[in-house]
């Protein structure tokens, strides 16, 4: 019995090593030709000089954009594979400060009003700060990125129960059509064509992975008057 | 003036990356003599047998066949003659372990190869500022 447990552990270790090597190869060896495509494209564009048809320039820009997407997808795959391997430090986090930091990091927030509400007995906790930050940032980024109005409202509510922090991030954007709500956590899925909103479609997948790892759940709830609400619970005690 | 330009050795196995560096040098008007080795073994041979003039600066890729950049750096740093060469690691590797290994072997900089040529140009422009200081 003990021997077979040992064998399983050895096998698991070997598989883990194989997996890590695979990820390493994907990240370096595939990026090299990808970079070469972009570089050579830029050189051709450069060598053609200034007297070039607009059609050709447009195609160059499409080509570079698509390779850029490919790189983003590759980075997203790597990020997903590393969810439980990197940024695994437990440290003291002040929750409102962490949320403010995420807001600070957002792009294009000039027409956004943030409304924060906290019902917390204690604002500080020891947790996987980088992971919590990643989830909050992804949800806030989505709320703004896919918003369809000039003025945007984003509501952040944090409360707690005995065991968990309960965090909800809602917006008054277009919401997610009912027929695709079960697809939004799938990797690279985007509700609109990637030509409409340039996004990789990995934020929710990564967030969902993180929550599964810490023992929380992420769910989408349609807002009553359109818009989206994403809710998740974040356990107060995390065992790693 | 020209004779004060420091020699640069590029250790890189990918042909496009070599062209990339050459092109970025031309764009940034960098006229330093540039020598190229395709991997760590070749670079060590070039240094040990004085096939190239002693470089003041090495630009080093990490993932290479035969001998990778970290192994090369380790062997090179063992030799007193090559202790003072400034080494810039230029790689796609964003692995912490590679960065730690590199810094433990006393590198002057760690540059991630960016996807776009424009970004690469600005990295090389930064390098130029550094080695102009070496030339003073």
Automatic annotation (TrEMBL), chain A:
**UniProt cross-references to PROSITE patterns, sorted A to Z:** HIS_KIN
- MF GO annotations: ATP binding; phosphorelay response regulator activity; phosphorelay sensor kinase activity; protein kinase activator activity
EC id: 2.7.13.3
Q: Sorted alphabetically, which keywords does the UniProt record give?
A: ATP-binding, Kinase, Nucleotide-binding, Phosphoprotein, Transferase, Two-component regulatory system
Q: Which domain of life is it from?
A: Bacteria
Q: Does the keyword Thylakoid apply?
A: no
Residue intervals of the Histidine kinase domain: 25-238
Q: Name one Pfam family in it.
A: HisKA
- Reactions it catalyzes: ATP + protein L-histidine = ADP + protein N-phospho-L-histidine
Alphabetical GO biological process terms:
osmosensory signaling via phosphorelay pathway
Q: What is this protein called?
A: histidine kinase
From TrEMBL, chain B:
PROSITE patterns noted in UniProt = RESPONSE_REGULATORY (PS50110)
- Report the transmembrane regions from the record: none
Domain Response regulatory: from-to ranges: 7-128
Q: Which SUPFAM superfamilies match?
A: CheY-like
Phosphoprotein among keywords? yes
The record's listing under InterPro entries reads: CheY-like_superfamily, Sig_transdc_resp-reg_receiver, TCS_response_regulator
Keyword annotations from UniProtKB, A to Z: Phosphoprotein
Query: Which of the residues bear the PTM 4-aspartylphosphate?
Result: 61
**SMART domains referenced in this protein's UniProt entry, alphabetically:** REC (SM00448)
Q: Which Pfam families match?
A: Response_reg
Ranges in a coiled coil: none
Protein name, as recorded: Response regulator receiver domain-containing protein
Source taxonomy: Bacteria, Pseudomonadati, Bacteroidota, Flavobacteriia, Flavobacteriales
């Amino acid at each position: 019995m003990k021997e077979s447990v040992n064998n399983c552990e050895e096998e698991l270790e070997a598989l883990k090593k194989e997996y890590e090597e695979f990820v390493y190869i994907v990240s370096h060896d595939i990026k090299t030709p990808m970079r070469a495509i972009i570089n050579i494209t830029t050189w051709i564009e450069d060598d053609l000089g200034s007297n070039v048809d607009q059609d050709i320039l447009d195609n160059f820009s499409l080509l570079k954009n698509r390779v850029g997407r490919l790189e983003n997808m590759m980075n997203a795959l790597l990020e997903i594979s590393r969810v439980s391997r990197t940024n695994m430090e437990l440290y003291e986090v002040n929750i409102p400060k962490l949320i403010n930091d995420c807001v600070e990091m957002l792009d294009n927030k000039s027409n956004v009003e943030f409304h924060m509400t906290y019902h917390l007995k204690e604002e500080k906790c020891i947790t996987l700060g980088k992971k919590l930050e990643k989830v909050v940032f992804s949800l806030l980024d989505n709320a703004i990125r896919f918003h369809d109005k000039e003025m945007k409202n984003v509501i952040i509510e944090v409360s707690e129960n005995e065991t968990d922090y309960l965090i909800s991030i809602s917006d008054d954007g277009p919401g997610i059509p009912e027929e695709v709500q079960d697809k939004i956590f799938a990797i690279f899925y985007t509700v609109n064509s990637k030509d409409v909103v340039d996004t990789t479609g990995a934020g929710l997948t990564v967030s969902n992975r993180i929550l599964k790892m810490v023992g929380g759940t992420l769910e989408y709830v349609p807002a009553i008057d359109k818009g989206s609400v994403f809710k998740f619970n974040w356990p107060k005690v995390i065992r790693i | 003036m020209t004779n004060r330009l420091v020699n640069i050795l590029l250790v890189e196995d990918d042909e496009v990356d070599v062209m990339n560096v050459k092109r970025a040098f031309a764009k940034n008007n960098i006229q330093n003599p540039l020598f190229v080795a395709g991997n760590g073994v070749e670079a060590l041979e070039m240094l040990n047998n004085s096939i190239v003039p002693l470089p003041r600066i090495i630009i080093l890729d990490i993932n290479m066949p035969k001998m990778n950049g970290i192994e090369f750096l380790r062997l090179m740093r063992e030799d007193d003659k090559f202790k003072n060469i400034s080494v810039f690691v230029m790689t796609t590797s964003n692995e912490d372990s590679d960065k730690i290994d590199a810094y433990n072997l006393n590198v002057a900089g760690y540059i991630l190869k960016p996807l776009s040529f424009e970004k690469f140009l600005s990295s090389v422009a930064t390098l130029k500022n550094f080695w102009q200081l070496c030339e003073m």
